[in-house]
Amino acid sequence: MQYKILLLIASHFWKDTFKSKAIYPIMVITYLLLFFAAQSGWQNNRTQNEMRAKYQQKARESWEANPDKHPHRMAHFGTFAFRLQHPLSMLDFGIESFTGTAVFLEAHKQNTVNFSEASFSTGLLRFGELSMAMILQTILPLLIFFLGFATVVTERENGTLKITFTQGASWKEILLGKSLGLMAVVQLFFIPVLLVTLFFLLLSNATLNADILIRFIAVFTAYFIFFAILCFITIGISATSRKSKNALVKLLGIWLIFVVLMPKTSQALGSYFHPSPSKIKFKSEIEDELVRKGDSHNPDDPYFMSLKDSILNEYDVESVTDLPFNYGGFVMSIGEKNSSEIYNNHFSQLLDIYRSQNLVSRFGALINPYIAIKNISMALAGTNFVSYTDFQTQAESYRYNLAQKMNELQMEYISPNKTHGSEGKTHVIGQEHWEEFPDFEYSFLSIGSVLKSEALSILSLLGWIFLTVGFIINLTKTAKVL
Amino acid sequence: MYKLLFRQFFKSTTIKVSLVLVVALGIVSILIGKQFLSKQEQTAEQISQYQEEGILRNVEYHKDDLGLLLYYLRFALINQPENLAGLSIGQSDINPNVQNVTILNLEGQKYDTDLINPVSLQSGNLDLGFVIICLFPLLIITLTYNLLSEETENGTWRLVAVQAKSKIAFLLAKFSVRVIAIYAALGLLFFIAKFVLSIPFNGAFLVFVLLSVLYIAFWFALSLLLVSLKQSSSFNILSLLSSWLVLVILLPAGLNNYMTNKYPVPEALSTIIKQRDGYHEKWDMEKRPTMERFYADYPQFKKYGFPKEGFTWLWYYAMQQMGDDEAKEDSDAMKSKILQREKTSQLIGWLIPTIHTQLTFNNIAGTSLGDHMNFLDATNQFHEKMRLYFYPKIFEKQDVQAENWNQFKPEYVAKKKEADWLNGLLPVVLITLLISAISMIRLQKI
Question: Which residue segment(s) compose the domain that B429 sits in?
Fold first, then answer.
């Protein structure tokens, strides 16, 4: 292979692209769109995070401002966890708008994460959101197809291909050269996205730590591979089509099926075949199991009756008021432990159903590089399913610790003589205990676990690049000049 | 000639495959709508059972304390979707259609979300509305982009020019074959939907169908306009697909971004903090001011006086009410902001048929954001009704057994919505007429 010729062909492709007047308006429109998407992603990220941080602090202030109280009152006072967005979510909104932002954390009760952006949105949200990722995943493939569909096939149609051959070029140089040229043109769109993202990242309050930088590099590497795949496909289709119109129609058909139809249909089918339970069913099953295990709200519950007997035996006392600790606090800590276990079991079953709903489209990544890049991009932007359930897990574990801490305080400091109720100012503990319990702080998933969760998509993308390179190499042997 | 044109039309595999594909997806969407409706129905059944069992169990546990019993009891209000909602699921997969509330403060309860897979939510419902709004235009583009250009590119246009009496008549006849095929597909889908989802034949359904017909006419007009420009097939398909991209994805999505940033809703977060603090801090305060504010809300309970020492349910429920009272301002602000979003989208919809059609579909089907806000209002009323029913009984320490607990069944929201013909159809009629007029004038010159 002669690299000089290859580069010559690539540079010809570049020049040809700028000969057509269509490229200029396309560039202007795409840049405007990109800027709009970047700006609104950044603004949303900033407003939301500022808002959430502000209310996290407010909630904390009013937690600490509580006077001396009975600890169980505080367990019900509870606190909130506000979900912060990952700085990179400005690039890819993922499922961000469809996940709740605030959850109330209190004793005995696992509340839902409420106030997703979607719950405030009109039917417009159904059309999608305009993010940089959406432009990269949806618009740019279309642009690549448009810029490259004609290149080989028109040259064959008007006979220039034959001339190129007589001048000493081979199929290898032509196909790889044209792919290279197309890839170079794509950089006109790709590099601005990269720079704009970097610009807004620097503009945001987030400190650019290693985690963000690695995610940044990884996500753009993935996009780079994705576009290379598309360039090879475009050139390949162009070389195998008999008329330029056919090449265009084929490529547009691919775009429609892979980008529009398949992702939505596969998710819809996944949900159709794995229906998830309603909230009522979910809650009532948990309640039923709890009642069977032992209901701390039932004064005559057998489980708690026998618990009482065994404790009285163990400490060799007649009545719970003779115990060295507050028995009410003890009962609640056992109740909390039981109910949390049951809840967590049911919740992980629910997540399993969601996972199987997502499975159809996740496996879709194997045959559809669009789905693969979509998954990788969301994961690295911290806006995918795994990142969200991780928030839920962290919030629930904070809630559990809060409730148990308050139960401990009750067992330790509240007089054993007082077994029930928590009103009034007689059975209280000092407010210094409130400050002692640290505030909720959300930490994002590590890059390692994020990448692991998307191993399938990464594999698929690598598989596709090998496949398309193989396709082009194979074409160099079979393609026709005339 | 018609017969020939039809035969030629159905010869193409692309046409056959794309027609079958869209109809198949349409049928899938109807089944998804069916599943949505039956899930809602199941939920309504489950909630009845849940409420009955909950009441029974708690009445057993707390038979000597009505105040404590009502701390636990939940009462359901159901927003049962119309069958038409199966065609346009809209926001009703995101927002719950059941409110299951205690008589404690409401602001801490009414925003609880449903349990749904956020990935499915993001991907969006594949309902018939989606098929009509997004996929039918693609079908129209596939079937019409080369209406004239294929003739010129194959060299048959000259033959037509010589043989046909009128070139426009020939083009329009060819065009009408596509129109008939696509409307037949649409009609078939509505026919299937009507029976599978048992949609009653009423004004709402008629407006839904008519709007679909008009919306599709809009896309036909647009493609005819492109044909009248007499450009190449490649140019036509690219322009039409770009229009699709702009109208179906970029404009609505961009507008949505704009509104999210223009009307952020921090009030939601302050509401939940205020409702909690508003109630909880009353535990550590004098009882009298709380009671005074409660009696200002409900003077009819003044006769129960001012409790002094110790715990009473009167004081407790008054404290609960303070949570709602103190969050009211923020809660109202949140509501008005959300309605502002709805209003702005509808206004812009007058110019953009895709947006208008989606919002109107949701409106007709009762699945819009506005419908959910109405449901929240209805929840407020329901909650107040339950409170006012139980308050005097609790305050007078009525016997638990004296109440007929069987009477508390889940209640349904009453709906009285009239199909809005004018606002629903006019925007699409106007823009379709405009584009058709331009393309007919241009076609005269062919």
Answer: 1-446
